[in-house]
Amino acid sequence: MKLLVINPNISDDVTALIETEALRSAGPDTKLVVRTAAYGVEYIETRFESLIAAGAVAEIIAEYAAGQKDDGGSVDGVVVAAFGDPGMPALKELTDIPVIGITEAALCAAALQGHRFSIIAISDRIKAWYRDCVEHFGLGGRLASIRSINESLNGIGSVQADFKDTLLALSRQAVTEDGADVVILAGAPLAGLARELEGQIPVPVVDGISAGIRMTEAIVALKSGPHRQGAFAPPPAKRRRGLSPTLDAALTAAQNSLTEPAAAVDHSVSK
Predict the structure, then answer these.
(1) pTM summary value
(2) Contact 144/59 with Cβ under 8 angstroms?
(3) Domains of the chain as residue ranges with CATH
(4) CA 200 to CA 162: how far, in whole Å?
(5) What is the pLDDT of residues 159-181, one digit of tens each?
(6) Burial 244-268 (b: 16+ CB within 10 A, else e)
C-alpha cells in the first residue's frame, strides 16, 4: 500500500513532524509519499486560510490523478494532514481512491473510544473553524470542549517544545472540568505529542496524524469501491477555464470514469 500524505500549509518543519509520526504509525507494508503545499500560509487558523489551502491540496492530488508523477507508481489513498481538513469533503470527488482528512479520522477514532471528546488546539483563533468541522460531521453533541493555547507562538514548528506543559494542563482540564472521555491533540504541529504524554492524561489521547494514517490504511484495505453516483460522484462535465493543466486533466479523467463500468475501474490514482 502507498499513501500520499499532504501538508496543506507551507511549513517544511511541520511536514517533518507529519512525516515522522506518519512513519511511526504506518504499517510495515505501507509506503508514504509526503508532500508540502506549494502555496498558502505557514499554518491554517481560519476558514479563509483553509479555502486557500484546499486549492493547493487539490493541485497535488491532481498531479497523481493525472498520472504526472513517476516516483514509483500509483498511490492507493490520500491523507490530508491538517486539522480542519482543508478542501474536505469536496476532494473526495476528484479521484477514485480514498481521500481522508485527519479531522474526520481523529473524530471517528475518538467516537469509538468514548462518548464525549475534547479538542486541544494551538490558538484561540482556530476554535471557531474547528467547531464548524465537528458540527459538519454531526458530532457537535459529543464535543465536550475545545481548549487552546492563548499565547503568541514563537514558531509553528516549535509549538510542542514551547508549550508542552500548557498542552498537558489543557488536556487534563478537559477531562476533569469538561468531562471528556477522549482527548484529541489537534493539528499537524502537535504530531507525535500524544506519544510523549502517554500515561500523563487519564483518558485515551488521539493524535490526528496517527489516526489519519491508520484510518486511511483501513479504508483502502476495505476495497469498498469508488463513487459513481450520489453526493461524492465526480463533478459533471461542463465548460471551464483558467485551471492548471494538471487539475484540468484530473477533472477530465474523473468525469470520463463516469462512463466506465464500475468493475473495470482501476482504483489507483496514476497508471
Answers:
(1) 0.90
(2) no
(3) 2-102+215-264 (3.40.50.12500), 114-207 (3.40.50.12500)
(4) 18
(5) 998 999 999 999 999 999 999 99
(6) eebbebbbebbeebeeeeeeeeebb
